[in-house]
Amino acid sequence: MTRLPDFRLETHFSRWEFTARHHLTASDAQTMTMAELLALAGPEDREAWDTLALGYTETFGDPGLRRAVAGMYERVGEDDVICFGGAQEGLNLAMQVLLEPGDHAVVLTPNYQSAETVPLSLCEVTGVALDPERDWALDLDAVEAALRPNTRVLSVNFPNNPTGTVIDAADFVRLAELCDERGIRLFSDEVYRGLERDPARALPQAADLSERALSLNVTSKSLGLPGLRIGWIACRDQELRSRLERAKHYTTICNSAPSEVLARIAITARDRILARNRAIIAGNLPLFDAFFAEFADLFEWRAPDGGCVAFPRYLGPDGVEEFCTALVEQAGVLLLPAGIFRSELTRTPADRFRIGLGRRDPGPGLAAFADWLRKR
């Protein structure tokens, strides 16, 4: 594995995430306190928490946690799940297990940077861009044209980060079929599943569609619990799961025992947590709609189909990079400019920025943003 480049998003956050007064680009839904989460625990999980011994846990993950995760799927059992220290570890190890020099991967863009840079460190990669001029539509023909005889992985992310787009279910099923027809692994980042504006648009999960596919998920995004650092991959291929476990022996070995119990409480109560978080986003959307309507000469706004981030266009003459820098330095309002999401594989729009919709009470941040714009 070659040296990875700096992670632009995390480097930017290291500078600004905890110093900016208004974090308007958060990618997670509203979190909760320990007391709030424990109040959702059933008797068995509460007993597990109260009597927890702080020893090592199983590399695959706590059996109770894996049972809870399996309950999210239609065709996945607890033995089809392996847990990780967040989604990043799962993505990283999966690519290292699935790809080697001489292989080829296809990655949809824009995306979370490591979805592109980790495969690029291992083999040749082709990017297929969502089309910003057609509401970030996916061109299935372009995906099929990018596949080669040595393609081993097709990596996708829906609801998409940073655009918030959700493709049609029929198109997603076709992606799984294309992969199965050609012996390719569909790697599906599903961390925003459950936050669709229209629940009927929730896509099937890749691990339910194909025994070869991998579904990546985490407690961080839709459930709003990034502090737990618990992610997982669901895959019905036993041999591949064993390879993932052996790869994990070189990283975290096992997860945090307290986090695993808390994660299984959250996943068991996911319907209540997701309903709460969807309600927060639905309540926030009119505030964002009104903000962007007031400044329609500066922004092109489209609410996301799913997830809790959107990727508006900035129309000002100074460019989005200079704009976002001035905004955080002068008004303390943090956004992520397009350069954070630039791709080495495809042309990506240079006039966009990511804004987050999932945190409670964005009013003060939007007010500071608007006041700064009015004074420019």
Automatic annotation (TrEMBL):
SUPFAM superfamilies tied to this protein: PLP-dependent transferases (SSF53383)
Aminotransferase class I/classII large domain segment(s): 54-357
Keywords for this protein: Aminotransferase, Transferase
A UniProt-annotated Pfam family: Aminotran_1_2
InterPro entries recorded: Aminotransferase_I/II_large (IPR004839), PyrdxlP-dep_Trfase (IPR015424), PyrdxlP-dep_Trfase_major (IPR015421), PyrdxlP-dep_Trfase_small (IPR015422)
Membrane-crossing residue ranges in chain numbering: none
Name this polypeptide is given: Aminotransferase class I/II-fold pyridoxal phosphate-dependent enzyme
Organism encoding this protein: Kitasatospora xanthocidica
